[in-house]
Amino acid sequence: MGLTITEKIIKTHMISGQMTKGEEIGLKIDQTLTQDATGTMAYLQFEAMGVNHVKTERSVAYIDHNTLQSGFENADDHRYIQSVANKYGIWFSRPGNGICHQVHLERFGKPGKTLIGSDSHTPTGGGIGMLAIGAGGLDVAVAMGGGAYYITMPEVVNIKLSGKLSPFVSAKDVILEVLRILTVKGGVGKVMEYTGEGVKTLSVPERATITNMGAELGATSSIFPSDEKTKQFLEAQGRGEDYIELSPDADAVYEKTIEINLSTLEPLAACPHSPDNIKTVEELTGMNIDQVCIGSCTNSSLQDMLKVAYILKGKTVHEAVDLSIAPGSKQVYQMLADCGALTDLIASGARILECACGPCIGMGQSPCSEGVSLRTFNRNFEGRSGTKNAQVYLVSPETAAVSAINGVLTNPKSFGELPKIKTPENFLINDNMIIKPLPVGAESVSAQIIRGPNIKPFPKNSPLSDEIQAKVILKTGDNITTDHIMPAGAKILPLRSNIPAISEFCFTAVDEAFPQRAKEAGGGIIIGGVNYGQGSSREHAALAPLELGIKAVICKSFARIHKQNLINNGIIPLLFKNTEDYEKVSQGDDLVFENIKEKLKSGEEIVLKNITSDAEIPLEGEFSERERNMLLAGGLLNLTKGE
Predict the structure, then answer these.
(1) Do the beta carbons of residue 172 and residue 298 sit within 8 Å?
(2) Strand 322-325's sheet: what is its strand order?
(3) Residue 354 CA to chain centroid, in angstroms?
(4) For a disulfide at 118, which of 38, 152, 220, 505, Cβ 3.0-4.6 Å?
């Protein structure tokens, strides 16, 4: 029986376990990446491990999230990350060099390699044939120290593409169609592997758009073959030596196959407030819009920007619309300037932003009250834009640009002709905004770490006690995102290195009284619904509850990364064995877990006693032996250090 691409990479990187569906496996990690919203905490954790130098082939620290410097906090964090990178052997991408996933694709990604990053959209690297996975900062810190990264052996789903995209239909429409079919929880425990003749028609940037938004499926990763298009891209980046051919065996076996004919796709939009709430643009045509934002790690490549520039050339943005555009990297920005396309963007009335995440994570460009915002981004969760009552639609760059001109949501097919934008024979290579670390030696050992006053120690958990008795501090519904748990945005992101301060905002998007209630109760338990913790990899969605004394989260189902972050920090994630038992618990109830320590050790069924209602509720754990040991120790750091 042949192997899929995913299985081939896993086989060559597997340190422990068996390639059996559902079994925990440990992988050797070749590359890591962090960004500044998660990086400070990851590097504090790395320092705590006492390792004197990274053990990976390449680790890169990017500054792309917290670039709005309205106080000292972000600048201090950037300086801390740069000093850590210099000392421990980590490459440092300076502010302004670009969004981590775009730059990593351009300058560092290699087919056949493993990559984990403290950002949920790390699977962007699958567009170049990497097994790239989003993870919590602590997992990244362990990998930098030479430790294995553990996942459950995923199911591999074949997304078989045929045909060719029509003009004004783009890669964004492909992944929106996959989301329409599978929903935001349809990829949990799976890797989406793209095959078929249609793959050959897609460039690496187009493939990266698709793998980027695989995160919205809840998928472990997404991956394309490494083929002639991959070789062309790498050679154009001056990295032809990094190319290897990588494809599935002819007799590879997939869990299931989903067939999509690219020729039949139409421009699509994800409607508020979920990436899988899909309609055709034609259905929505004529809707008034207030704002258009083009960019993000999903759609900020040179290919995307040149299409936008062509559409806007000689036109003026509609007077009712505010248009902002953020190129994904300095390379893209400079090439737009060199070919004159940047002039066309500026002349149209677009506001040109720096090469950073910006509006995608609520860092500026919040829409007006009840505003309709078209965005080429990957998430449209309620409030994520910074305006709670905004209506955010996710669309392709082509749809966004044409609509910006017309002032209403418009099917881009009405525009006219659109030239084929090809991968350039040679990209502009200028890595002067990437700082190489000190080599291992006396100089790196003596290099100083620079810490600002906003950097506080991360919270530490204690080993698990024999019994947990606590109140239900919060009960939520389905599809609670990490934005709900730990909001982002310009006001909160500067506190990422100060857990006591940022915990004051925990769950305030759901219940403003939550932090105070948790502190008054001395901690407690959270009850959730389906797909709890979907969204970003932000470890702060576990660290802030830990700071507030949360002992366990009980829900109907978890998103993969958030569940792992809870375990890493010693918070017990449990499932209702019978989902209808969700109704037997209310906010404010007194709960008790008796003999929880012994039951976790033995793998026995855990029974929750609701003292308030006198109900007994069976729960499931779904933990590997390693994860049980982590929970017993009070988290991964305690386990690693033998505490």
Answers:
(1) yes
(2) 278-280, 268-270, 391-394, 372-375, 291-294, 322-325, 351-352
(3) 20
(4) 38
Strands of the sheet containing 155-162, edge to edge, are 221-223, 190-195, 155-162, 256-261
Q: Do 157 and 140 form a contact (C-beta atoms < 8 A)?
A: no
What does DSSP say about strands 24-27 and 372-375: parallel, antiparallel, or unpaired?
unpaired
* Closest among 506, 500, 539 to 524, alpha carbons compared: 506
- Other beta carbons within 10 Å of 235: 17
Pairing of strands 155-162, 256-261: parallel
Q: Hey, what are 412's tokens? A: 């881009």
**Residues 51 and 146 sit within 8 Å (Cβ to Cβ):** yes
Give per-residue pLDDT as tens, 195-251: 999 999 999 999 999 999 999 999 999 999 999 999 999 999 999 999 999 999 999
Q: Give the pair of three-digit tokens for residue 623.
A: 């933990």
H or E stretch covering 553: strand 550-555
Class of residue 418 by CB neighbours under 10 A (exposed 0-12, middle 13-18, buried 19+): middle
- Per-residue pLDDT tens digits for 591-628: 999 999 999 998 889 999 999 999 999 999 989 999 99
Read off the pLDDT band of 491 (50, 70, 90). Answer: confident
Q: Judge contact between 238 and 232, C-beta under 8 A.
A: no
Beta bridge partners of 61: 34, 92
Asked if the model's pLDDT at residue 643 lies above 60, the reply is no
DSSP letter assigned to residue 424: P
Residue pair 522/516 in contact by the 8 Å Cβ criterion: no
Dihedral angle, C-alpha 388, 533, 66, 488, nearest 10 ° = 20
